[in-house]
Amino acid sequence: MLVHAVAAFEDNYIWLIQSALSSRTIIVDPGDADPVIKTLTEKQLSPAAMLITHHHHDHTGGIKALSEKFAIPVYGPANESISGINHLVSPGEILNIDGFEPITVMDTSGHTADHISYYSQNSLFCGDTLFAGGCGRLLGGSAAQLHASLNRIHQLPDNTAIYCAHEYTQANLRFALAVEPENSALKRRIDETNLLRTNNQATVPSLLRQEKATNPFLRCEQSSVWRAAEKKAGHVLHSPLEVFTVIRSWKDNF
Questions:
Q1: Could you tell me the pTM of the whole model?
Q2: Confidence band of 19 (pLDDT split at 50, 70, 90)
C-alpha cells in the first residue's frame, strides 16, 4: 500500500491509504473534508472507506461532507458516539476492504475511553494514542488504559511504521530530553527532527524501534526513566504504571 499525508489545521495529519493495485483509497481521521477532496482530486484517487480512531472533532469534522460526496463505508469505535459512522467496530475485529490487505482493529484506549487504532502490513494508524516522541493526553480515558495500550503497541514488530495524527515531535522530544538527558539516541533524533522541521518536512511516520529507543512513554521500565520519574514524584515508585502516570502528569505541565 501507499500512504499519502494530508496536512490539516495547524498540525494535524489525515492519512490516505492507497491500494497498491489501484486508485482505491482509505481515508483515516478526516478532520477536514476540503484538503482531503483536494488531494484525492490531484492524485486521481478513488475513496473506498473511512477509518475513525476516536470522537474528537479534529478527527471527525470532515465525515459529513465526505459522506455526502462519496457513498463509502465509515468505520469507527462502537462505544463512542460519532455522527456518520455506519460500521461500528471493536478491538480484535478484522476489516476486509476490497483491494486492501486485512486491517486489524486494536484497543488503544486511554486518550479517550474507547480509542481504537488500525494495523495492517506493519503500519499502525494510531490517532492520538502514540505520537512521535510522546503519547496522547488523558481526555476521557485513564492512565492505566493508555499504559496498557502502549504496551500492546510495544509488542508489534520493530519495523512498524507509526502514523500518528499530529506534528508534535519537536515539543515531545524536548520533554523526552528532560526525562533522559543522557540518551544519545534521543539527542541524535532531536538533531534529525530539527533539520526536518527547518526544511518544513514531516517527522512522521516514525518507526517503532525508534520510539522504543527515544520515547519515554515506551520506556517506563528503563532505569533512567524510572529514576527521573521518582525524582519528579519525590518518592519511590513501585511499577511501570506508576512511572507512566508520573511522567504523563509531568508532560501535562511541562
A1: 0.97
A2: very high
Q: Are 160 and 118 in contact (CB under 8 A)?
A: no
Give 87-94 contacts, CB < 8 A, sequence gap 24+: 89/116, 90/116, 91/116
**pLDDT of residue 1 exceeding 90:** no
Read off the pLDDT band of 251 (50, 70, 90).
very high
Question: Given the C-alpha cell 459512522, which residue does it identify?
Answer: 85
Does the bond joining 240 to the residue before it have cis omega, within 30 degrees of 0?
no
The H or E element containing residue 12 is: strand 12-18
**CA 190, 194, 196, 201: dihedral to nearest 10 degrees?**
120
Alpha-carbon Rg of the chain, whole angstroms?
18
Return d(Cα 111, Cα 129) in angstroms, integer. 6
158-180 residue pLDDT tens:
999 999 999 999 999 999 999 99
Secondary structure E strands in 34-191: 46-51, 74-77, 87-89, 94-95, 103-107, 116-120, 123-127, 130-131, 134-135, 161-164
Annotate 91-117 with DSSP letters as a single string: TT-EE--TTS--EEEEE-TTSSTT-EE
Helix (H, G, I), strand (E, B) or coil at 133: coil
What residues does 134 pair with on adjacent strands?
A: 131
Give tens-digit pLDDT for 99-109.
999 999 999 99
Rounded-to-integer distance, Cα 230 and Cα 76, Å: 38
Please check whether residue 163 is in contact with residue 204, taking contact to mean a CB–CB distance below 8 angstroms: yes
| Strands across the sheet containing 12-18 | 2-8, 12-18, 24-28, 46-51, 74-77, 87-89
